[in-house]
Automatic annotation (TrEMBL):
It comes from the Bacteria. Gene3D superfamilies: NAD(P)-binding Rossmann-like Domain (3.40.50.720). InterPro entries: NAD(P)-bd_dom_sf (IPR036291), SDR_fam (IPR002347), SDR_oxidoreductase (IPR051911). Belongs to the short-chain dehydrogenases/reductases (SDR) family. This is SDR family oxidoreductase.
Length: 275
């Protein structure tokens, strides 16, 4: 994909990587359709960039409204070249300690909404002859940390969904990219909900907190830049590990998983049906 002006649709554009993507794209001359719960949070960018920034109020868990916004984006722009599914939030705490509401909201926001967005943009991308769907995922889609179980459940889920979808839509010229950052210096951690450990978990593996944001290795500007470059590539990668901790931890986890499988090869083959 060349660097001429493109139109991008970005969910969760109010803060963090979504806001950074919006800023960088507008600075590069692109047009952005930004969705967020409070469109006024982008008033400063609207004043600076005028009609190259289109805004829509959206809670991504409202599937009916999601459909309306997607259709409106194509009606307004005529064509959307790249869709970035970015909206999400985190809940930190032992799996047992989370409330039913926290479990459901995590799944609804991080997984179900991403699936429903993909289902609604793919027909538009197919009908216009192609485009790119970028899903913001995480190194947490390949490995786990105690206290982040429900977050991992949503990221492992969307990884599987996007990988299957990629094969289905490739014949139509639609490409998908899973962006998998490590720990990023972003407001994500400030906005995340933290659940105090109940008595059995105090002092245990789940009774931990992430390191201070200033000690995290990745900048949100770096993640946004890498995401843009991948989306504009002629042959974008299915998965994009971003920053050093993501690369080291994910490749190590995959090697360890493979080594574990290989120790059980004989047992696996033993379960085959007899010829």
């Amino acid at each position: 994909m060349d660097e001429s002006t493109k139109t991008w649709l970005i969910t969760g554009a109010s803060r963090g990587i979504g806001r950074e993507l919006t800023e960088q794209l507008l600075a590069r001359g692109h047009r952005v359709v930004a969705t967020l719960r409070r469109p006024e949070q982008l008033d400063d960018l609207a004043a600076q960039h005028g009609d190259r920034l289109l805004r829509h109020r959206l809670d991504v868990t409202d599937t009916g409204r999601l459909s309306e916004v997607v259709d409106a984006a194509w009606a307004e722009a005529g064509r959307v070249d790249v869709v970035v599914s970015n909206a999400g939030f985190g809940v930190m705490g032992a799996a047992e300690d989370l409330t039913d509401d926290q479990v459901q909201r995590s799944i609804d926001t991080n997984l179900t909404a991403a699936i429903q967005l993909a289902r609604r943009v793919v027909p538009h991308l197919r009908e216009q002859g192609g485009g790119t769907l970028v899903q913001m995922s995480s190194m947490g889609g390949h490995l786990t940390f105690p206290g982040f179980g429900i977050y991992h459940a949503t990221k492992w889920g969307i990884e599987g969904y996007l990988e299957a979808l990629a094969a289905e839509v490739a014949p139509f010229g639609v490409r998908t990219v899973l962006v998998e950052p490590g720990m990023v210096r972003t407001s994500f951690y400030d906005a995340a909900e933290r659940v105090a450990p109940s008595a059995p978990y105090v002092g245990g593996p789940a009774d931990t907190a992430p390191p201070p944001v200033e000690q995290m290795p990745a900048s949100q500007s770096g993640v946004a830049h890498a995401t843009i470059e991948a989306a504009l590539a002629d042959d974008p990668p299915l998965r994009l590990l971003v920053n050093s901790d993501a690369y080291e931890l994910v490749t190590g986890a995959v090697r360890d998983r493979l080594a574990g499988f290989e120790t059980r090869r004989e047992a696996a083959y033993a379960a085959d049906a007899e010829v």
